[in-house]
Amino acid sequence: MQQHSNPDPDPLRTPGLEPGGGVPPGETPPAESSMPGAGPQETHNPPRGWAKGPLTLILVLVVLVAAGFLAFAIALAL
């Protein structure tokens, strides 16, 4: 039968720990820096903003839904 060891280190024998479990400054590694060049280079940057076709379609749908709610409200009022 195989014995498994405890994966947690003994706090009394762990180097760099202060009493109470704190870590003194300089014991931890610095934070990870950002890596702007890590991904593939983008060669195509589409223009900013919405294309006219999808924006017009969305606006037409919004107007139709608003007109439907208005018609429903008028029908309820009569």
From TrEMBL:
Keywords: Membrane, Transmembrane, Transmembrane helix. Residues 1-50 are annotated as: Disordered. It holds the Pfam family DUF6480. The chain crosses the membrane at residues 55-77. InterPro entries: DUF6480. This is DUF6480 family protein. It comes from Streptomyces xiangluensis.
